[in-house]
């Protein structure tokens, strides 16, 4: 992409704003390097990643970038085997923690929205939690190593603390002893050694080592001989502490080196995510949307806004190009918004092609262009002795050399700065030449000749910026399909120019031109209204189709889920029946064995009768299950290609052949081709839902009731809340079949324990209770045996 267009269309200003939303300087550099992508695939992928990030921002709030820093320098040093400083290690740990949390942020969500691109980005994250925790455990802050970083460091600091206390006590004693010779009754530190301020005339009265003197020379800072050994010991401990800290930092740096590939990769992914979410935060700031993208040169921006204009003042515009026409000629008065229109279209195109969402309405469409050219603004150059016209023509020459079918060209005041007749003829020739190349063009002009050119040339359309004659102000609305009306006479009249002057001016203009201007005014409202209604209808139709497709997918998903749940429920019910039948047969077998050992024949007859009744009841239930499973419309005839349901396989299939002489048809079921009897097929699966679902839910409740914890923790509750919680818990434990449970109430003042014991005395489920033994929690718990 040519740099001139990026600069003229103020793309760099957009990047500067996006950089404010980043957390790391590495992401800022990625934004500095951002330019329109070179393929349609890249454009769509990067727009999609930004849109996914915006969706996450809306649903889950800010991403976990806390503590994210640019650690490229630290990683580079670790890669070369250097020992890192505490600040560098701490920042590496923070960015690794950020990467790990981001993986959870992406994957742990309740919605089912597809985040394909972001998930692909995050799939490369490899958490190094052990390294992260080791650094955070050892380093408290940017300049402080934790005591718990190693046992050796802990012992050194403990000894150092004891020695420091001893030396302070001793130096305080010496201050009192030598108080008559001291400048002040205090002690101080010079070079990590404790000293006392002695008056220079009494230096012989305090034996020791002189470390410093005051600026006036009246005070000497002497280390008394009685402190020398203690100070030496403290100095040795401080050196040991420093050596141990260096050892710890070296060890942590080595662990970073051992995981350098993971550390570097995770950090790069965090930088990329920071870059993506910066674009998403900017999109949220300006109310942007993800546009549709094509490579057919079609632009259809609905209610597009220039992102650098105050949102309270900006006027949205509808612009379309590339279907019925490939060139758009915009006319209108000065300060009417023509240049802003060009810059808006050009900037929105550049933003979209760079993966940045655009401020417009949903369903807006942009096109992928290999090049965007812009000749906008006064580029007069004194240094190069170029006039305005010459500078514009120099730029236009370069555009004419490179523009093709994959280019978008923006011309502001094409042909201006020279003789109007020649300038208009030149402008028409330039536009016609580019139109024949099928280049997409937006051009502004004041020349009437270009209006006529647009009216008579296929593939070229007029447009204008609206002007309110009543208020003498532009409305900044773009009107496509209608050339601009000059309004010079109306404006002059409202500003006070005499009527006779205006009449003389009118008489100097050909009647055809006046009629042409009047025709423009009459066509304006009708054309605009019809065009707006047509485009709104297309947009609403597209939205309706999208919503229809979305909800059809959801409906199909719900139906499939319902069918699977019902089938699984039936299978579970059959399994229960089979198990119950087997158990009943086992019980009856045992009864017959007992009967053989001494029951009378009458008792035997009664047992056999009861066994038959039980067997009949189970067989009936079993048959009902099969009958229910086969429910659905039976088939008497089928057609090739018809979709059917196979109850025996719990699958759907497609009919491949008509029934043969044995009544079998061939069916494609998944990857298999099978023969199935016609009578065993169903047209659909209509289950009797209510009773079965209730059975399944009832069984699920019973299963869940058995999953009761063996203890309950009441710590932090007041007596009333604790009694309510224990009562409910004992009910659940009893239903769940627990024999004994533990109630944790803590020791404390004993108020909570007494309240619970009073409640247990009268509880219907409690058989006995006692305080915990040694190893069970002691008096902090109560062990309850249930009935």
UniProtKB/TrEMBL annotation:
Function summary: Endonuclease that is involved in the suppression of homologous recombination and thus may have a key role in the control of bacterial genetic diversity. Acts as a ribosome collision sensor, splitting the ribosome into its 2 subunits. Detects stalled/collided 70S ribosomes which it binds and splits by an ATP-hydrolysis driven conformational change. Acts upstream of the ribosome quality control system (RQC), a ribosome-associated complex that mediates the extraction of incompletely synthesized nascent chains from stalled ribosomes and their subsequent degradation. Probably generates substrates for RQC.
Name of the protein this chain belongs to: Endonuclease MutS2
Record-listed E.C. numbers: 3.1.-.-, 3.6.4.-
Coiled coil: 513-624
Top EC group: hydrolase
Entry GO MF terms: ATP binding; ATP hydrolysis activity; ATP-dependent DNA damage sensor activity; endonuclease activity; mismatched DNA binding; ribosomal large subunit binding; rRNA binding
Gene: mutS2
Sequence ranges assigned to domain Smr in this UniProt record: 712-787
UniProt lineage: Bacteria, Bacillati, Bacillota, Clostridia, Eubacteriales
HAMAP family, sorted: MutS2
rRNA-binding keyword on record: yes
């Amino acid at each position: 992409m040519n740099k001139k267009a990026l600069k003229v269309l103020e793309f760099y200003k957009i990047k500067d704003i996006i950089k404010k939303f980043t957390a790391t300087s590495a992401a800022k550099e990625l934004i500095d390097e951002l330019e329109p992508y070179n393929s349609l695939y890249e454009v769509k992928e990067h727009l999609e990643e930004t849109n996914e990030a915006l969706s996450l921002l809306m649903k889950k709030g800010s991403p976990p970038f806390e503590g994210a820093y640019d650690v490229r320098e630290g990683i580079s040093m670790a890669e070369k085997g250097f020992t890192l400083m505490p600040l560098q290690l701490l920042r590496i740990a923070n960015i690794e923690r950020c990467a790990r949390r981001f993986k959870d942020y992406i994957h742990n969500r309740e919605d089912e929205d597809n985040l394909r691109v972001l998930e692909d980005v995050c799939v490369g994250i490899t958490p190094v939690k052990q390294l992260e925790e080791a650094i955070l455990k050892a380093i408290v802050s940017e300049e402080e190593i934790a005591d718990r970083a190693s046992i050796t460091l802990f012992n050194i600091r403990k000894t150092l603390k004891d020695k420091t206390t001893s030396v302070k006590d001793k130096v305080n004693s010496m201050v009192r002893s030598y108080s008559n010779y001291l400048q002040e009754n205090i002690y101080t530190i010079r070079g990590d050694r404790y000293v006392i301020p002695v008056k220079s005339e009494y230096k012989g009265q305090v034996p020791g080592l002189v470390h410093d003197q005051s600026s006036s020379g009246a005070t000497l800072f002497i280390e008394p001989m009685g402190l020398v050994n203690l100070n030496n010991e403290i100095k040795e401990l401080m050196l040991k502490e420093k050596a141990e800290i260096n050892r710890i930092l070296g060890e942590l740096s080595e662990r970073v080196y051992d995981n350098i590939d993971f550390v570097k990769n995770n950090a790069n992914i965090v930088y990329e995510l920071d870059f993506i979410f910066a674009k998403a935060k900017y999109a949220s700031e300006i109310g942007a949307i993800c546009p549709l993208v094509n490579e057919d040169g079609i632009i259809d921006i609905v209610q597009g806004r220039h992102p650098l204009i105050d949102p309270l003042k900006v006027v949205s515009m509808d612009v379309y190009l590339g279907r019925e026409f490939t060139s758009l000629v915009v006319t209108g008065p000065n300060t009417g918004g023509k240049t802003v229109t060009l810059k808006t279209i050009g900037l929105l195109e550049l933003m979209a092609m760079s993966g940045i969402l655009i401020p417009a309405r949903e369903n807006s469409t942009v096109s992928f262009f290999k090049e965007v050219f812009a000749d906008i603004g006064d580029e007069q150059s004194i240094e190069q002795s170029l006039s305005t016209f010459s500078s514009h023509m120099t730029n236009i020459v370069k555009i004419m050399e490179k523009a093709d079918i994959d280019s978008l060209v923006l011309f502001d005041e094409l042909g201006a700065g020279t003789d109007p007749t020649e300038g208009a003829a030149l402008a028409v020739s330039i536009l016609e030449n580019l139109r024949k190349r099928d280049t997409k063009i937006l051009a502004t002009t004041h020349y009437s000749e270009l209006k006529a050119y647009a009216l008579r040339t296929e593939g070229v359309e007029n447009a204008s910026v609206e002007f309110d004659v009543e208020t003498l102000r532009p409305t900044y609305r773009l009107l496509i399909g209608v050339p601009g009306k000059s309004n010079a006479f109306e404006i002059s009249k409202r500003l006070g120019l005499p009527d006779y002057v205006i009449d003389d001016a009118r008489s100097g203009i050909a009647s055809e031109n006046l009629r042409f201007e009047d025709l423009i005014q009459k066509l304006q409202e009708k054309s605009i209204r019809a065009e707006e209604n047509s485009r709104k209808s297309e947009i609403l139709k597209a939205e309706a189709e999208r919503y229809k497709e979305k909800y059809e997918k959801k409906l199909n998903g719900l139906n499939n889920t319902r069918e699977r749940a019902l089938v699984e429920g039936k299978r579970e019910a059959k399994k229960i029946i089979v198990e119950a039948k087997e158990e009943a047969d086992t019980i009856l077998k045992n009864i017959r064995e007992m009967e053989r050992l001494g029951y009378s024949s009458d008792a035997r007859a009664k047992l056999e009768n009861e066994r038959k009744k039980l067997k009949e009841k189970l067989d009936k239930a079993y048959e009902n299950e099969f009958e229910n499973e086969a429910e659905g419309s039976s088939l008497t005839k089928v057609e090739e290609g018809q979709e059917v349901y196979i109850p025996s396989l719990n699958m759907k299939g497609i009919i491949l052949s008509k029934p043969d002489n044995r009544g079998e048809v061939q069916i494609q079921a998944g990857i298999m081709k099978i023969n199935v009897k016609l009578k065993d097929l169903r047209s659909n699966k209509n289950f009797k839902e209510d009773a079965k679902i209730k059975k399944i839910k009832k069984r699920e409740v019973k299963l869940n009731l058995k999953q009761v914890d063996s203890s309950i923790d009441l710590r932090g509750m007041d007596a009333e809340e604790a009694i309510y919680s224990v009562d409910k818990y004992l009910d659940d434990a009893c239903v769940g079949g627990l024999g004994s449970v533990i109630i944790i109430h803590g020791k404390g003042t004993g108020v909570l324990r007494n309240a619970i014991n009073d409640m247990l005395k009268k509880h219907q489920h409690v058989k006995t209770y006692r305080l915990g033994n040694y190893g069970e929690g002691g008096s902090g718990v109560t062990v309850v045996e249930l009935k």
